[in-house]
User: Fold Glycosyltransferase RgtA/B/C/D-like domain-containing protein from Granulicella cerasi.
Amino acid sequence: MKLRGFTIARPQQIAGLLLLIMLGLCAWNISREPLSADDYRVARCGREMWERPEAIAGYFTSCGNLNGDGFFGYRTAALPLSLERGVLLATDHFRKPENRLYTEGSLNGSLWEARHEMVGVKWLLRLPFVFFALWAGGGVWWVSRRLFGNEGGALALALYVFCPAIIRHATHPSNDILALWGLYGLVYTAIGVGHALQGPRKKWRPRIVLLTVALGLTASAHTLAGIVGWLLGAVFFFYVAERRRSLVLPIMAYAALGALLVLFVVFGFRPSVFLYLFTGGSARCWMGLEAAKHFFLQPANAGISIAALVSLLLYATTKRSRYFGNTVPLLCVLALMPLYTTQIITAPWLWAVPFLLTFIGGVFADVLETRYRKTYLLLAGGVIVAQAGLCVMTLGGWLR
Assistant:
């Protein structure tokens, strides 16, 4: 079956089934976990960004200036709630005055609060992040399949779907899942622009605009993710551009300026809040191996850890695995895994996970083309089954 040039064949069906399983896991996790105080804080401050009630003097929201931990997450979490409030306000006009829910000056029915009249808050607050996690999973499959074929794409996506850390961050308001989505797309969009420069000029502008938007949204999720993404993208862009390398720095500079404009829009056109981006310290970071050790030594990630170790050994010993498609995600993992922020709490190690799974998919796809295909096919299948079981046990609380 074809849908406007997009063929829905067996690979697409498998990818769709995996993403559907991920949606089910996320829904299960959301249903099991009640709303927390942090959820209410994000919802309140995000709604203030959209609905603009009376602000506290000197601050953007009642949460302050948010310490630079990403406005994108607050707006994403609160948008469905603000839309629901808008629908309630619209339908309220069709009720008789004595039956209206919202009345001016009423404490229980004020235009701003009235929490008791909103339904499905837990789902409305968390499902947008599930959507971005699914979108990122689709990106992992798309990139891995185009680079490594159907088997590499399926393996990378399967490990992504059954990664407990991804599921947990996707089912709570989290700027980290948005930074993961933006950073992965940003790096491969920069590479795509480099390839586009080898073709006709009419293909340059759309990809440069996409690069600019990707950089702006990534930075609005987390400043450090935007900076690291710009640096990684510039390096790989420069490598791919070849005879057009003189255009790399101007394009990346224009992308950075456009990203600042995107940030200014996300910050509500508030100059004082926008300037706080440069003084809040959210991009302060250092390097260490504690987060990487915790991720790879955690029992819940045993399948991914085994696959990563095998892939690294194959990359080091097999020449056919050492090429640009496999090296790019490996370098991204090495750049992101050791990072940790010193000003705010965040998880740069999580941003590295899609690149790690892309690397695993690429190396396994290479070795599956050798005479050892059956052995590594069984290993890949065993890793997927084991990781799926560990994911379910972890989300269910049976494995810590």
Observations:
- The chain is about 70% helix and 0% strand.
- Residues 10-33+123-395 form one domain.
- The longest helix spans residues 121-148.
- The first strand starts at residue 2 and ends at 3.
